[in-house]
Amino acid sequence: MRKPRSSLTATNWIQAAFRALSEGGPQAIRAEAIARALKVSKGSFYWHFKDVPDLKRQMLDHWRDQATEAIISYVDGTGGSARERLQSLVNASTGGEAEAYGGVQVEAAIRDWGRYDPAVREALKSVDQRRLRYVADLFGECGFDANASRSNANLLYGALIGLEALSVHSPIERRQELTRLLGHLAPAP
């Protein structure tokens, strides 16, 4: 099989699939529709993916890697105190990186998708547990006991999810609001 002339990568297709998901739900993740949006033939799709279920599996893996593991690695790499890393996490979580994937709607779209698809539900559960564990560990490093660390992690993470949902229809400054909440949960020294 010859490589198509298009220079699209698997990541380009995955980003377009997330945009389709954000705009039209899981039923919008179709090779032909995504190819049309990218202005290429379906042949480019089959160069990177066996079929649509393969694309969906790769989407979930990519999301887990980029929206969780890459952010955790970035935050850990910033160094500083646990409180400073919590602020770095807020900043990274509210940056514009999601725009290529459909913007702030993408996480809500994944959560909605998980209501109907067991594989997505399992991926969500795994990602949520990993994220909450990481945030709780940072609060623990700030000196909170295990219960307070988990509670603070739940509050900060829940606020992020809620503010993402609200910001779709309302002008909300998510970073500012989360920073304010972080200031209440773990005041800066």
How would you sum up this structure, described in words?
This protein is mainly alpha-helical and 189 residues long. It is 72% helix and 0% strand. It contains 9 helices and no strands. It has helices at 10-24, 31-38, 42-48, 52-77, 82-93, 105-114, 118-141, 146-167, 174-185. α4 packs parallel to α7 (118-141). It starts with 9 loop residues before the first helix and ends with a helix.
Present the secondary structure layout.
Blueprint: H1 10-24, H2 31-38, H3 42-48, H4 52-77, H5 82-93, H6 105-114, H7 118-141, H8 146-167, H9 174-185
Number of strands: 0
Give the H and E element order.
HHHHHHHHH
Computed over alpha carbons, the radius of gyration is 18 Å
Whole-Å distance between the termini?
60 Å
Structural class: mainly alpha
Which oligomerization state do the chains in this entry correspond to?
A: single chain
Low-confidence stretches: 1-5
Largest sheet entry? none
Range of strand content: under 5%
Question: What is the molecular shape?
Answer: elongated
Arithmetic mean of pLDDT:
93
Query: What proportion of the residues is helical, as a percent range?
Result: over 70%
